[in-house]
Write a structure and sequence with these properties.
- The protein has 233 residues and is an alpha+beta fold.
- The protein has two domains: 105 residues, Glutaredoxin (3-Layer(aba) Sandwich), CATH 3.40.30; 104 residues, Glutathione S-transferase Yfyf (Class Pi), Chain A, domain 2 (Up-down Bundle), CATH 1.20.1050.
- Helices cover 53% and strands 8% of the residues.
- It contains nine helices and four strands; from the N terminus they run βαβαββααααααα.
- A four-stranded mixed β-sheet has the order 2-1-3-4, covered by helices on one side.
- This is GST-like protein.
- InterPro entries: Glutathione-S-Trfase_C-like (IPR010987), Glutathione-S-Trfase_C_sf (IPR036282), Glutathione_S-Trfase (IPR040079), Glutathione_S-Trfase_N (IPR004045), GST_C (IPR004046), Thioredoxin-like_sf (IPR036249).
- It comes from Stakelama pacifica.
């Protein structure tokens, strides 16, 4: 049994996609990040960066005590190794997947996240910041589009790289991107959206946070975007 500490954000969706694809036995433990659940002492014991998702695996493969993992990329790698799925064992194929996972973790996620922030949440609209992150998101979409030319998936067979990248493309309109400009990415995106496990994963999120309740209040923005070393722990 795996406990998934989760909220329906792109990083949260990565993990439900994997768990649904693998048919894993898991329980969602909601972490309402708009209400500050990520600062609870019990959550910080397993996720010291006060960010979800995080997991606790009560039956790790080494047969010892439960193990807690935070950071979505690390969780995907852990689950892939535990189940023997969605991460190749051969050297070149394995690192093909890992490098695209790291591309998402270090590039697409942070850049698209700043795009979201300055476009949607910042109290002051700063044209330079908006332009900077919309353009960088566009550049990264172009990298992905070129990678997907002649490929069904990002790194050979369907893998944790696809699971990590897809949720960050879902809000493409909010990021100022048109999928029609990226035909190979668009083809891949539409195929991903039709996967039954992906649909189930997003349905789980909708159960926890219906779309009608997804607008942030000013107080929630303060919780999410006003953290310092003193307030963020």
């Amino acid at each position: 049994m795996i406990d998934l500490h989760y909220w329906p954000t792109p990083n949260g969706h990565k993990i439900t996609i994997f768990l649904e694809e693998a048919g894993a036995d898991y329980t969602i433990r909601p972490v309402n990040i708009g209400e500050g659940d990520q600062f609870r002492p019990d959550f910080l014991k397993i996720a010291p960066n006060n960010r979800m998702p995080a997991i606790v695996d009560h039956a790790p493969s080494d047969g010892t005590e439960p193990i807690a993992i935070f950071e979505s990329g690390a969780i995907l790698m852990y689950l892939a190794e535990k189940t023997g799925r969605f991460l190749p064992t051969a050297l070149r194929e394995r690192y093909d997947v890992i490098q695209w996972l790291m591309w998402q973790m270090g590039g697409l996620g942070p850049m698209a996240g700043q795009n979201h922030h300055f476009n949607r949440y910042a109290p002051e609209k700063i044209p330079y910041a908006i332009d900077r992150y919309v353009k960088e998101t566009n550049r990264l979409y172009g990298v992905l589009d070129r990678r997907l030319a002649g490929r069904d998936y990002v790194a050979g067979d369907y893998s944790i790289a696809d699971m990590a990248i897809y949720p960050w493309i879902v809000p493409h309109e909010a990021q100022g991107q048109a999928l029609a400009d990226f035909p190979d990415l668009k083809r891949w995106f539409e195929a991903m959206a039709e996967r039954p496990a992906v649909r189930r994963a997003y349905a789980k999120g909708e159960e926890i946070r219906p779309e009608a309740q997804s607008q942030m209040t000013d107080e929630q923005k303060k919780i999410l975007f006003g953290q310092t070393a003193k307030t963020g722990a």
